[in-house]
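Pasting as-is:
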Amino acid sequence: MGKRLEVLISGFGGQGVVRLGQILAQTSVNEGLYTTMLVSHGTETRGGYVRAQVVISDEPVDSPGCENPDFLVALSKAAYNKFNPLVSHGTIIYEPYYVEVDNGLQCSQVAVGARDMAVNDLGREIYANVIVLGYLTRLLEGTLKKDEILKVMLEKIPKYQDENKKAFEMGYSLAGKKKGCCCG
């Protein structure tokens, strides 16, 4: 791996932000890497602000927070606006249904319309986070293994496994089509 990798995932409660962080962190541990995960959220049960910060490294992690994320996954407008200033060299993956992109940013930005894909292809918005996980998995090739992420995902999300596998593969395939895209 060779360096510290930072993934900041944020959105609103009920979008599966924490679950995505848990899947990445557990996969890292399973693959023998060092990892930390910090979670913060508002006082609301659903609909409030949520953030998961995951740091992955092949060396002990000295600071658990994301200082300069390699990947920012912004699932809401508030998340995008709050955390995009932290991304100088990384990639922002955003949900265009909720986010108005700032084309003036110097980092790479990729729209992943996971919400619409989940509703149109799987019938429920609840699968959008897994579509994003599949997309992110493709970008993390060389750091984390696809099969291990999928295995951990199915352990952490025991319901609707067929739908979640399909959602994961939809995101993974989409990233293959968009690979190298740095557009807003």
